Amino acid sequence: MSRRTALLGMGCGLSLMVSASIINRSDFIWNRTESVPKGLYFVDRSARISTGDLVAFAPSDEVRHWLNDEGIVGSDWPLLKHVAGLSGDEICRCDTQVSINGITSVDALKVTESGSALPVWQGCQTLKAGEVFLLNSHPLSVDGRYFGVQDGARIIGVARSIWTYGNRSAEDQATVKAIDSGTGMASVSRRARLRECHPATLNPLSAHPFLCDPAPEDGCTDLQSAARLEP
């Protein structure tokens, strides 16, 4: 081994030791799910949160236990979700359609692969200061389409990609951009149906993520569309 190689190795080792003493290992997350690219992420706890950011999020104890019981993700595992709504944004769920500022973004399912009912909320709400709406483009993502508005204080930090794999299709990337920007990709007919979902017909988003707000005519929606969900 040459002296130069030895010195380089010593320098790299010293750098790793210094980094390990400064950076908490809890600031690194290995994502094993499909809702965002798999791989290693660094959680930037000091970053300012903006619409479109991918963030690490600590769900409430109740949501965490539900995710664990359903086998979706471990009880001590943070979720990686995109910030789709912040203070001043209006979010709605009308039946299974979820919209941001009047534009349809995603659709929700009604049951899990095992047949368990998914959390349901209905109606519209304008986010207040400190509230966030989290949404991924993946159709099986477990996010705001089921749990509604969340406390922004539960965001751990912005998730920065270090090394990821599993490229998304161009169509999926466009959907992510549409959700992040709030512009959506809805057709005229879907927009028209959303306008029929008036905020006054139902209670605003339930503070309890598992409380099914009954619809005015037929109560909670029938169960269908079972699928294996991704956290």
From TrEMBL:
Signal peptide from the UniProt entry: none
Gene Ontology biological process terms from the UniProt entry: signal peptide processing
Domain Peptidase S26: 9-163
Origin superkingdom: Bacteria
InterPro entries xrefs: LexA/Signal_pep-like_sf (IPR036286), Peptidase_S26 (IPR019533)
MF GO annotations: serine-type endopeptidase activity
Name of this protein: Peptidase S26 domain-containing protein
